[in-house]
Amino acid sequence: KFIKIAKTAESSAKMATALDKLEAISLKKLEYSVYKYSSFSSTYVPTNIQENKIADQSSRWSSETNNPPQYLILKLSKPAIVKSITFGKYEKTHVCNLKKFKVFGGLEEENMVELLDTGLRNDNIEETFAIKHTVGGRSFPCNFIKIMPLQSWGPSFNFSIWYVELSGTDEWNLIQPAIEWFNGHRVREAVRLCLKHFRQMNYIEAYEALQRETNVQLEDPLLTNLHKTLVEDGDYETVEMFMENSASNGFLKPYISKQEYHAEWRPLQSEQIQPGMRGGHQMCIDPQNETIYLLGGWDGNQDLSDLWSYHVPSKRWHLISRDTEAEGGPSARSCHKMCLDPERRQIFTLGRYLDTQYRTPENLKSDFYLYDIETNNWTQITEDTSMMGGPQLIFDHQMCMDVALRTIYVFGGRVLTPNTGVSEERTGCIPSLVGTSEPVFSGLFSYHVPTNTWKNLCSDTEPGTPELKSRVGHSMLFHPVCRKLFIFAGQRSKEYLNDFFTYDVDSGSIKLISDGNRRHVNSLPAAGFTQRATMDPNLNEIYVLSGLSKNKEKRDDNVQNSFWVYYILQDKWSCIYQNENTGEQYWNEMQHIEPCPRFAHQLVYDHINKVHFLFGGNPGRSCLPKLRLDDFWKLTLVKPTYIQLLQQCKVLIRTCRFQELVVKDGLEALTYLQTSLYEIIDHDDTNQTSEVRCELKLNTNKF
Fold it and tell me: Any signal peptide, and if so, which residues (predicted)?
């Protein structure tokens, strides 16, 4: 457990070549027959899944019962590498649709591996899933595909599958070597399991004989050497030297890269003038110049029109403008959005919130501004973007920029209209709605800066795009390498959304990553909570800070922060930070250690120096509805360093040495504990010291 050895460059290159070759092959629909099934009811026979009749309610397989196991086993007409599976549906929602299911595959009926664990949405839109098709970096073929329903959308209802389509390749020049490699891989893995068992049981002769006859290596020779030094020779000092050499040679780097982040908050205090309390403000960051810009907001009584900059190295705030409107810029506002072009050093701002009494036709124009950082000049690009084919006046939308093509994308937000019949209570960027009138939401727009042109890419009422549901309070990030917008969560009327999808800005295609229902409730950020998101395109990671509940009634009961990381390439969420939830007393004690939960705050990320900055917001105190915050925080995400990891390894090694000495010589063990083991322990690390204490308690009866 001390070390993860990276695979050799040669084997990695071979794997990459094989995968690239498969990716280049065009996929085709694969023919199959229904080989076996667990049961069926009435006329809903298994073979119905081979025809896609969305209007025919009887064209489906339905199990006779929902008692497990229920399954369908499909046999391919010839072995194939299966890359995706598509499920067709009935034209209406149905209680028998699969909410949860698994897919297995393999060359033999009795020897299949899990390929997919997911579920279907309960709607009429077919869904396609990529399935596992590689083992050890190489593609493996299947003869059989097994679909195992686990739960239907209707409680206690039988399972129904309407249509199944498999896609992949069955070209023999690819399949034949894949079968040969996979069969050989299974043999090698079986031999390695035997070798592992023999060595663990100390059957040395059997171990050496099997290794000699098969010429199969159990592991990397370095690990074999480590096992001999530690287990057979008990040479603990040499083991420590081995770990030091491994660290210096970079062998620990892959292991460190897979470790979870640890969140470190630090308050940033300035003795100089700084922005006052506010929520609904906007911030953007210029990472090249390490400068943060802050514009406007709501202080609990009025909208603000000040513009600030914060220079990170000097830790100083600078008031650029006390009133941007007086200098030709935007009027006082909150719930607007900003984005920055770091190459041309320009800031764009769009949108704002207006109280109902100010929503006259003249005030409901969607003004659009540009701020030139070098010249300290404001320019009104247009008085009303809706007159140029852009959005109407909106608030709580999202805006981000494709710097390479100088294109701004605006998605969602609520359209401000006069006399809506909806009374509102300003609580931040998302007013509480009290009334029956449905709010109007804005769609997806693009703005091309060089030509000063807007384009409506998708309106909220446009049919055929159910995944692109407009919303407020969501997050939207642009990935400049894969050229996709990542859109997550939000709120639409009283519905809290938790879906996650991408929009390809070049092709216009939409890919649903998660509908929020397929995963376990604890495996992704919860719906109904304020979240702020940032992205590191170099690391392919998305960061989400989830805080206060958006539901006013539940706000006092959900005072908790959590920080999530989404690993784009692995399609994996991980919660790396979550504070204790112990009420007001806890936050009074922690006010200088971590920020309290809030909404209407701002979070920006410097992807060069890998740090986040958080400012202000609304703490949601029901007893102080006008209270806003002016605290400023720096968040650093850290992983174990080589030195820390090496120290942890040495603690394990010396603890093992101590356990051995306890059995042999209690006095020598006590001396070793007071010297060698004591000096290597990090006594400031409470987790490490408590673990060592537990180990000592287990061994006290052996003295």
Answer: none
Amino acid at 571: D
Could you tell me which residues come within 8 angstroms of residue 622 by beta carbon, excluding any fewer than 6 positions away?
A: 552, 555, 556
Dist. CA 120–CA 512, nearest whole Å? 12
Alpha helix (H) ranges present in 531-612?
A: 584-590
d(CA 151, CA 102): 10
Among residues 646, 654, 584, which one has the least CA distance to residue 619? 584
Burial 590-600 (b: 16+ CB within 10 A, else e): eeeebbbbbbb
Amino acid at site 402: D
Write out the two tokens for 430.
């998302």
> How far, in Å, CA of 473 to CA of 490, rounded?
5
* Concatenated DSSP letters of 144-156: EEEEEEEEESSTT
Q: What is the pLDDT of residues 75-85, one digit of tens each?
A: 999 999 999 99
CA distance 66 to 633: 52
Which residues lie closer than 8 Å to 702 by C-beta, 6 or more apart?
A: 662, 663, 666
Residues 6 or more apart in contact with residue 496 via CB below 8 angstroms:
489, 527, 528, 550
Query: What is the CA angle 417-419-425, rounded to 5?
Result: 85
- Asked if residue 58 lies in contact with residue 44, where contact means CB atoms within 8 angstroms, the answer is yes
SS3 540: coil
Core vs surface per residue 485-503: b (16+ CB within 10 A) or e: bbbbbbbbeeebbbbbbbb
pLDDT digits (tens, 9 = 90+) for 405-457: 999 999 999 999 886 555 555 545 554 544 446 789 999 999 999 999 999 99
Question: How much of the chain is in helix, strand and coil states, percent to nearest 5?
Answer: 25, 35, 40
Residue tagged 């308050």 (tokens) = 267
Tokens of 300: 């609990």
Establish whether the linkage from the previous residue to 69 is cis, with ω within 30° of 0: yes
Q: Which residues contact 175 (CB under 8 A, 6 or more apart)?
A: 78, 79, 80, 81, 141, 169
Show the tokens assigned to 20. Answer: 């690239």
Round to whole Å and give the CA distance between 108 and 18: 23
End-to-end CA distance of the chain: give it in Å, rounded: 28
Does an H or E element contain 669, and which? Answer: helix 666-672
